[in-house]
């Protein structure tokens, strides 16, 4: 069964090159009308150019429909204008791929507060602003698909990327709450951790790996996650042709009787508390509290209100 994006309006931020460009081209090939957003700066976010315009020309040459937008995702009013313009031209906005990003890698010891702030601003605030600018429209339409671009750095950490990792895991937290708030309006929100040979990774990957991790291989995951039948709340990893899921999980809570709730009691139980077994991924923050209380019930036989379980 082929997956179509006909009659859908999509915004892809940072789509002037790299992964975003591939998403925009394929969305347009499959019938979407695409807003190609890109400030067109360098890898560290300085400067600007007409990168977005070039991608629009490519889409149009291939018979697709697109408009360019050179706004920075860090400017909320410009994100609102981008959405308003798309609505005026095409009547709605159905898909948002938050992809724009910058790098300012340094060890934490050498990282200046401005480098931290800037990277968090582009990735985390930029994605929050673009999502917020689309949110009301998506609610009104009872249709929305939002993809956050996370990273293995956010999920698992990476040397020299404290600013980037903080922003990227922040995006997963944003996705997890938006998918809850959007559920009743048919707004689905997912996170993608790509691995791709782009200008962002050109001096980080060995030459062979750079070729192997062709960004086109990330496109199937990204487009599925913003398609009509997309799941919600997924965290997906994609690169080179390999695809996986990731979860934020917890083990079973260990219930300590009152007399053992001391620092020493916690230390004595640490092996059990930190055991990587019986893991499950709560679907909301409230489920974590529920799971803690279940542990109490298991030990004491009483529920939260003191009633027998
Ligand atoms: P890229 O540097 O080719 O693409 C990022 C694009 O975002 C650039 O075209 C840039 O001009 C644009 N951009 C930067 N600041 C902007 C702003 N304020 N407003 C609008 N556009 C802005 O790099 P790549 O690899 O394609 O990255 C795409 C996304 O994937 C980024 O969020 C990146 O962090 C993420 N990612 C990439 C990985 C990889 O292996 N290439 C790994 C993990 C995550």
SSE ordering: EHEHEHEHEHHEHHEEHH
Strand-pairing-aware structural class: alpha/beta
> Which fold does the CATH topology of the largest domain refer to?
Rossmann fold
Number of strands: 8
The CATH first-level class of the largest domain comes to Alpha Beta
Give a list of the ligands.
1,4-dihydronicotinamide adenine dinucleotide
Strands side by side in the biggest sheet? 3-2-1-4-5-6-7-8
- Average pLDDT score: 96
Please count the helical segments.
Answer: 10
Q: In the residues, how many domains can be counted?
A: 2
The coarse overall form would be globular
Q: C-alpha Rg, in Å?
A: 22 Å
Description:
InterPro entries: KR_dom, NAD(P)-bd_dom_sf, Peroxisomal_Beta-Oxidation, Sc_DH/Rdtase_CS, SDR_fam. This is SDR family NAD(P)-dependent oxidoreductase. The chain has 309 residues and is α/β, with parallel strands linked by helices. It has two domains: 238 residues, NAD(P)-binding Rossmann-like Domain (Rossmann fold, 3-Layer(aba) Sandwich); 43 residues, no CATH class. Helices cover 43% and strands 14% of the residues. It contains ten helices and eight strands. An eight-stranded mixed sheet has the order 3-2-1-4-5-6-7-8, sandwiched between helices. Strand 1, helix 1 and strand 2 form a beta-alpha-beta unit. Bound molecules: 1,4-dihydronicotinamide adenine dinucleotide (NAI). The site of 1,4-dihydronicotinamide adenine dinucleotide (NAI) has 33 residues, from helix 1 and helix 4.
